[in-house]
Design goal:
The complex is a heterodimer of chains A (464) and B (142). With 464 residues, chain A is an alpha/beta fold. Chain A has 14 helices and 15 strands. Chain B contains 5 helices and 9 strands; from the N terminus they run βββαβββββααβαα. Classes of the chains: A alpha/beta (464), B alpha+beta (142).
Chain lengths: 464, 142
């Protein structure tokens, strides 16, 4: 009888010996004789005994049960990844093998489904942000922002890029990293102490004939809206610079599309559109721009385009303008990213298509009205300032503990004991804001979740 | 079976090993790519010019960015066009922005790429091939 040496390595002992004899080696150990004895493993690894499939399932299931999902504990943590409801059909559609396992659609003749889905994604993003062209996605908001800065530099021949000093520190860090190779100078512009919004006098001081672009986030990282966005765009344009706006796409169910207030490039995080939080990724970098040819030629990333067959009878989809991309243009490419987040983009397309403009508006309204309700109620607690900035907000806002004695960390750990996942502590990013926290609300919050948070915060801060 | 297609090599031009041509026109040098080059590129779909007024260096053994006068995009490739002589770019063929296919249909006339105001013409012409030499060079490429 031949015996297999291992379930998954089906070499019978006889075959193994035959192979060793063939190459003139006495044993498998002899194959490792070049490795000094001092660094070779003596004896078996210090590991627990092997488990059967059934045992592994039980073991891993036990480990996973320590995770508390959002539907078992309300979370108010946003700040870049947001908890939203994902309709069941979104997952059902993106789980189809044609989407789930498909490779980059270089071969248009065998990739019409993926190319069409990406084209639909791009079309909906264009409609949402109010611009003419969107690519098939970047990796995430920060990398989309990095690409936008580089694109501004390419188009203007300038290297100075202005950003708000209250922007997300993570995004700023990626932006600096991304643009340093191109020798760009990232300059933080101050904010109005009362509203938190970009200070236009500071902006005017920093704008000059070396400025490639001006960037704002709307809604801002800290939740407030830039109510003078149009003016900011006009100032940028007067200086010959481009205007870049970063968005949470859900907010565009309610807010004016940036393309309508002068944005040349819109970037953003597409995760809220039908993609799970998954401990922070994969995410979906939105990237869209104006449609004149010079601008499109300078765009980063993959684009799916619609065309007609030679006989003019059939519609077809292809990857368009690939000569901008790295696999053809090499070191002259517009971007070093030659991939994208296709599956996340398709999820976003399915999400947007099934909600429609009315549905998206409804989601955005619930997000905003939940935030307004929560701001009002939390603001009534003594020793708590909500929001820190006197501006309109979308679905996120800041809270500051002013009573003294209690830190955001203590508040959050007390909330956790009460079964509530609190906001994002801001001390590390913005020490100047004091004991501050960033909270978010979305359509997943029921009124009792909001009231539960208010009750817990007042209990902790008022010592009640 | 047909033999190799004979590629046009006008007598009055100078040539580079990279398949650019140069025509001396008074104080200026007109630049384009050869018939052979356009046949290898395939359909040219876009031309990206270096700026008018920009200084360029004559193409050398090692190609550098400062030698580029344009970048040609064909359906599936992107190639740089290098300066046959050093100087500054005096004019570019704007018509190619609308009709890049002129490079394929009329490489030596309507498909010209730019005019260079040379800075060291007499000496640098010695580094280029004449029509006979270029024809031999093409034969060598097989």
């Amino acid at each position: 009888m031949q015996t297999m040496s291992h379930h998954y390595i089906p070499n019978f002992r006889e075959i193994r010996e035959e192979m060793l004899a063939e190459i003139g080696v006495g044993s498998v150990d002899d194959l490792f004789s070049d490795i000094p004895p001092g660094v070779r493993l003596k004896g078996p690894l210090n590991l627990p005994p092997k488990m059967s499939e059934q045992e592994v399932r039980k073991h891993v299931g036990g480990l996973l049960s320590k995770n508390v999902p959002v539907n078992r504990m309300p979370t108010f943590l946003g700040g870049g990844i947001w908890p939203h409801h994902i309709p069941a059909h979104v997952r059902a559609i993106v789980s189809r093998a044609e989407f789930l396992t498909s490779y980059t659609p270089y071969q248009a003749e065998v990739s019409q489904g993926v190319l069409q889905a990406l084209f639909e994604y791009q079309s909906m993003i264009c409609e949402l942000v109010g611009l003419d062209v969107a690519n098939a996605s970047m990796y995430d908001w920060p990398t989309a922002l990095g690409e936008a800065a580089l694109m501004c530099a390419r188009l203007t021949g300038r290297r100075r890029f202005l950003v708000p000093d209250l922007m997300s520190r993570d995004r700023l860090s990626v932006l600096r990293n991304y643009s340093s190779g191109a020798g760009m100078e990232i300059v933080e512009v101050g904010h109005d102490a009362g509203t938190g919004q970009l200070d236009l006098e500071s902006l005017s001081r920093e704008l000059n004939d070396r400025t490639a672009g001006v960037y704002i986030e709307n809604p801002a990282y800290l939740g407030f809206l830039e109510t003078r966005a149009q003016e900011i765009g006009e100032m940028a344009h007067r200086a010959g610079a481009m205007f870049v706006v970063g968005v949470d796409p859900i907010s565009l169910g309610l807010l004016k599309p940036p393309g309508e207030y002068g944005a040349d490039i819109v970037v953003g995080e597409g995760q809220p559109l039908g993609n799970p939080m998954s401990f922070g990724g994969p995410t979906l970098g939105i990237f869209a721009c104006r449609g004149d040819e010079r601008v499109i030629r300078s765009m980063p990333g993959r684009i799916s385009g619609m065309t007609k067959t030679v006989d003019g009878k059939t519609r077809g989809f292809v990857m368009a303008l690939q000569t901008r991309e790295q696999h053809i243009r090499r070191e002259r490419a517009t971007s070093n990213i030659c991939s994208n987040e296709t599956l996340c983009a398709i999820a976003a397309a399915v999400y947007l298509a099934s909600l429609g403009p009315e549905g998206l508006r409804e989601v955005a309204e619930i997000c905003a009205s939940n935030a307004r309700y929560l701001m009002k109620r939390l603001g009534g607690i003594s020793g708590v300032r909500v929001p820190i900035f006197n501006s309109p907000h979308f679905n996120e806002f800041t809270l500051r503990l002013e009573g003294g004695g209690i830190s955001v960390e203590v508040l959050n750990s007390e909330l956790l004991k009460a079964g509530i996942h609190g906001g994002k502590p801001l001390k590390r990013e913005f020490p100047g804001l004091g004991e501050a926290s960033l909270l978010c609300t979305t359509e997943i919050h029921a009124k009792e979740d909001l009231d539960g948070l208010v009750e817990a915060v007042s209990r902790v801060t008022e010592g009640g | 079976m047909g033999g190799r297609i004979q590629r046009a090599v006008p007598r009055e031009l100078y040539y580079t090993r990279d398949h650019e041509w140069a025509r001396v026109e008074g104080e200026l040098v007109r630049v384009g790519v050869t018939d052979y080059a356009q046949s290898k590129l395939g359909d040219v779909v876009y031309v990206e010019f270096s700026g008018v007024g920009q200084a360029v260096k004559q193409i050398g053994e090692r190609k550098e960015r400062e030698m580029e006068v344009a970048v040609l995009e064909s359906i599936k490739a992107v190639s740089a066009v290098y300066a046959p002589v050093s100087g500054t770019i005096a004019e570019v063929n704007r018509e190619l922005s609308e009709r890049p296919e002129l490079i394929n249909t009329s490489p030596y006339e309507k498909g010209w790429i730019c005019l260079i105001r040379p800075t060291n013409l007499a000496a640098e012409l010695n580094n280029l091939m004449n029509a006979d030499q270029y024809e031999d060079y093409l034969k060598g490429l097989g």
